[in-house]
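Batch 3, record 17
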Amino acid sequence: MHRLIVAAAALAMLGGTASAQDSLKIGYIDPLSGGGASVGEGGLKTFQYLADELNAKGGILGHKVEIVPMDNKTNPQESLVQAQKAVDAGIHYLTQGNGSSVGAALEDFVTKNNSRNPGKEVLYFNYAAVDPSMTNEKCSYWHFRWDANSDIKMEALTNYMKGQPSIKKVYLINMDYSFGQSVRTEARKMLGEKRPDIQIVGDELHPMLKVTDFSPYIAKIKASGADTVVTGNWGQDFALLLKAAADAGLKVNWYTYYAGGAGGPTAIKQTGLDHQVFQISEGIPNSGNKAAMELEKDFRAKANMSLWYPRAVNEMRMFKAAAEKANSIDPVKVAAALEDMKYEVLDGGEGIMRKDDHQFLQPIYISSFGTLADKAKEPFDEENTGWGWHLVSKIETANATVPTTCKMKRP
Amino acid sequence: MAELIVISTLNGILFGMLLFLLSSGLTVIFSMMGVLNFAHASFYMLGAFFGYQLTRWIGFWPALVLAPLLVGAVGMAVERYGLRNTHKHGHVAELLLTFGLAFAIEEIVSMIWGKSPMDYRIPAALDFPAFTVFSTNYPAYKIFMLVVSVVIFVALLITLKRTRVGLIVQAALTHPSMVGHLGHNVGRVFMLVFGVGSALAGLAGVIAGPSLVTQSDMAALLGPILFVVIVFGGLGSLPGAFIASLLIGLIQTFAVALNGSLASVFGPLDPSLGPSPLTDIWNVTIAQVAPILPYVLLVLVLIFRPMGLLGTRES
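Prediction for the assembled complex:
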């Protein structure tokens, strides 16, 4: 009798593993509660949509793709707990985006886990943590990044600014943490190299998410005589900065990293700064690329939000391509297949997953936000404002590349 | 230099008045009831969301009246069915109740309105620059906020110090049973005071909502600075809160305008020392730490003058 129970239990467990092998699980570790939840939920919807899209075409090598939501409350410590839970549940792929502090913790986690548990490797697909150090001094063989890191974005932006003679005086204002600091340092360095005639008339760091009134900062920008402001601000620090600028009647062009983030478009519309706010991104809704725009339309209809993360599309589709190339969903083989893999990105143009540091290199778009002149060509507005992104310039992959200092330790 | 001083002063006053608008209700509740209301910023948020919703339906001006009344009603309900029962267990229980309430309100708001910012705009009638100084516009809406703040301050002061209502309310705090024996319903007095305090928070929400960001984490972001204002001004002192708001507004605004650092006063450190935490501290500008200054003030006030600027008692 006793043996029978053991046998039955063993059978049940076997059955369990068999069905687990049927689906290919991706642990989505991002905030689903707390302050970052609005962003995290948007990402979750995006990945679930992309998984459905893959599954409709037979999944990856016959495996159904399943996104497992894991709430990390934007906290590195909590993320490690969730990552361990994922590993214990037999998940071999993690994806995360919000916060480079979380990203760095996860990168460290997969490196340690994979060296200690050969045969149980985990890959970390990063879709939005942009700290350059993750693909430089801290780089890991098990980490792949689809978003352009902040240095690459600055490289692309300064390559665009190089050709804009109207830019003469630039003011930098950023949040006082690793990302904001890297934006200001790189902007200074790259502008100094490419346009030494541009004057940096101000360089401000302010505490993160603590400022309620930006008018004193605007007064300083105005006093400096700047014609252009470069900022990595996001969230309320972006919205309040812009509102204060509009209130004071400041007329400058804004070059931003995250104007398109949740609430950003609403804030810009409120200020009435028509086509004066620019964004650097790896894709835009109104890119003119037919396939991308059809996807955008379908995504908006199903998920009721705009496609914030064209890079997530690249990530999931490339994952499938890599698994098919390796003819396996074994993370070690998929990782090897991803290296130096070339891929036609969503909005058109060729990208490549650089082998040296696992940074995806891709075309970068500069777009401005405002009224859309031709609704037939540019059908998509943002957050029901009636305003949308208009393509200003496309920076080809070659001009959106910076060297890496990564000394990759390969297994 | 003149330009810097004039503009910073103006910005400082405007910001200070916004702070007072936000903290007046908190001061009223604390000074009249002795309850430190942790949910105050949540009532402010409710005011902003009610204001947004009512503006959508019936326009800004009716919303400006109705939304605070609604928030006041919510506040009275909280007092009647929550605080009154916990009152007998002391201040810690009341504090914890309002603390929990803050989380509950935030969750409810994000369930109803979602987590993204609302498109809550300044009414068209006030959407124009009121005047221009040194080519910087000052929007009419900010002047409107300033006027409302001053009106609230004067009205509250007169009510509390010069009217019979104020007399009874003040007496109810220190001698509740005596006031009761004189035939006043002490419970109802407290309920009304809490209602008025919440309504003031709601009014602040309706007015500040369009000019700041109306979203479900706005309470958490604004809560801390309000406590600085009332502690600095003296717990429970209305004129104290008024002066503290202005001072904090001015200090912060002027600090942002200053680019000085230790390095600019004493010269840069010897480069041979290399990068270290000391060089970081040496090169931090006053502007960089400006938004933290109010919290430094809070600590200093608590150490050297625990009753605050104009406070009369220590807790």
